[in-house]
Specification:
By secondary structure, the chain is of the alpha+beta class. The protein folds into 3 domains: about 5-200; about 325-420, Beta Barrel (Thrombin, subunit H), CATH 2.40.10; about 425-505. Helix content is about 40%, strand content about 20%. It has helices at about 5-10, 20-30, 35-55, 60-85, 95-120, 125-150, 155-170, 190-200, 210-225, 270-280, 285-290, 300-310, 340-345, 350-355, and strands at about 240-245, 250, 260-265, 325-330, 335, 360-365, 370-375, 390, 400-410, 410-420, 425-430, 440-445, 455-460, 470-475, 475-490, 495-505. Strand 15 and strand 16 form a beta hairpin. The longest helix is centred in the N-terminal third of the chain and has 27 residues, at about 60-85. This is PilZ domain-containing protein.
């Protein structure tokens, strides 16, 4: 096993010169087997934590050491991020370490700025500018990964980022382009990092798929360049605003939003660049988007860009809600996931396990087409955008819906659902070409019971193919059916229309 602890020893040794630290770190990364990246990063984080706790290290030594460590560990960290996002085998446990790396370095860089403020060191000006840029970058990455986990960030996360930005602005380098790392492909600046994080928040990612959130984050690298943060509202709308004195995310500008700490920007140029991409997406994926290496097809890119154009408008797309919600407060029995929902509909009873979980779900509001709930249980991993959900209460017939929005907060997880219809019926499907195979469960909502004026026929993804013939059995009667368009894909099942060919005696 590689002796990665030698780096920690070098970092914490008072007798090791900066050149020695650099050499140790360089050798570590050069010789480190990829299989040991995770273990090495854990040790590096421990080393940074110890540096943060050691009050005897001088500012010069602290700055040099932290920048060296960040330089050498960045590629290891980036590799772990990529493995985690692609769900590589063994990567599920990487998340705490990925976040801890950014958190510890952000804290370390804040300490450096505080020491510099109490005893200015002009000779370190260039290094302190880079420290500020990296500190802001790491803090904004923590916010972006909160979005990936549908987690509402605490105000302190924004506040930490604001401290780095304010230092850059007061020191006159907020717009100064710099390479984040020696091997970075393009320069960035503190202003751009803060604006990019703000636009990601304003994209309302709580109802996006993971791959869409990643795509928006990457897209903003392209279309949010060279947009200034101003101390006065720009004339061209839509205009968004940060209040750097408040630990809060940005929001659309409203009347009366003015003050010393307000920073405004116009999204006009961003939405114009987005419109150009949408024009190209009518026929192809533009080369700029193809270069981002995101897992989106042309139609998915087009849908995402249209969604962003609405959300980055003056009202943030709020006017597009299908129907007004009315407040409602009650407990609910909830089942999540196609297979579990299909089973519950088939047996037509609440299992003991679900009965025990009655107190975990609360209905907040409801309309003819949607519902807002709060989940106060711990099993948040069962929640996913596009997943089937069945809600039962004493005052409503069973409602079948699709999860469209997730937002994790301290007082519970907010879940928004699109209601497909009520009183779903359990049916079974058999492939006549495989008569020996057991039947598959499916779910049917008649047109009168649908909330969207159409019947719903939900089935396992493996069965969904246009023109496929199946045998449908419901309430003791069997029919030969043929699947046809339109078909629609959800996270854990598919919907397909169908024609009835014949009744089977």
């Amino acid at each position: 096993m590689f002796d990665f602890k030698s780096l920690v020893t070098s970092l914490l040794s008072k007798n090791t010169p900066a050149s020695g630290v650099a050499q140790s770190a360089t050798l570590l990364v050069r010789d480190l087997p990829q299989a040991e990246y995770f273990t090495a990063l854990v040790e590096i984080i421990k080393a940074i934590s110890k540096i943060n706790a050691d009050t005897n290290i001088s500012l010069k030594e602290r700055v040099k050491t932290l920048l060296y460590v960040d330089d050498k560990a960045a590629n290891i960290h980036q590799q772990l991020c990529g493995d985690y996002l692609r769900s590589r085998p063994g990567s599920k446990g990487y998340l705490p370490t990925i976040l801890a790396f950014w958190h510890e370095l952000s804290t370390a860089y804040q300490i450096c700025l505080r020491l510099h403020k109490s005893a200015p060191t002009p000779a370190l000006e260039a290094e302190l500018q880079l420290i500020t840029l990296r500190g802001l970058h790491h803090q904004m990455r923590l916010l972006a990964w909160n979005a990936l986990r549908y987690l509402k960030p605490e105000g302190s996360a924004w506040q930490q980022g604001f401290r780095f930005y304010i230092h850059a602005e007061e020191s006159g380098f907020a717009r100064t382009p710099m390479l984040l790392y020696p091997d970075s492909r393009q320069e960035t600046c503190c202003e751009h990092l803060l604006l990019q994080a703000g636009m990601l928040h304003l994209a309302q990612t709580e109802n996006m798929l993971h791959k869409e959130i990643i795509a928006v984050d990457q897209l903003l690298l392209l279309i949010s360049q060279h947009i200034p943060l101003e101390k006065q509202p720009p004339l061209e709308g839509p205009v968004f605003v940060y209040n750097l004195s408040m630990a809060e995310p940005p929001q659309p500008m409203l009347r009366g939003m003015a003050g010393k700490w307000h920073r405004y920007w116009s999204a006009y140029e961003i939405t114009t660049r987005l419109a150009d991409l949408m024009f190209d997406l009518d026929t192809r994926i533009p080369s700029q988007l193809a270069a981002l290496d995101c897992e989106l097809e042309r139609e998915e890119w087009a849908d995402l860009c249209e969604k962003l154009a609405i959300r980055w408008s003056n009202d943030g797309g709020k006017s597009l809600r299908k129907s007004e919600r009315s407040l409602h407060s009650s407990s609910a029995h909830v089942s999540i996931g196609f297979e579990r929902v299909a089973f519950q509909i088939k047996v037509q009873e609440v299992s003991t396990l679900d009965a025990e979980r009655l107190d975990e779900w609360r209905i907040n509001d409801i309309s003819s087409t949607g519902m807002g709930l709060t989940f106060i249980g711990k099993a948040v991993e069962q929640l996913a955008i596009g997943r089937l959900i069945l809600v039962r209460t004493e005052s409503h017939p069973p409602l079948l819906g699709i999860i469209r929005r997730i937002l994790r907060q301290n007082n519970g997880t907010k879940v928004g659902i699109e209601i497909l219809g009520q009183t779903p019926v359990g049916v079974s499907l058999l492939d006549p070409t495989q008569p020996e195979s057991p039947p598959n469960a499916a779910i049917y909502i008649t047109q009168p019971n649908s909330r969207q004026g159409q019947r719903w026929f939900l089935m396992p993804k493996v069965l969904t193919a246009a023109d496929r013939e199946l045998v449908l059995t419901a309430q003791g009667k069997s029919y030969q059916i043929k699947l046809r368009e339109p078909q629609r894909e959800f996270e854990d099942c598919n919907h397909s229309n169908f024609d009835t060919l014949a009744k089977i005696d």
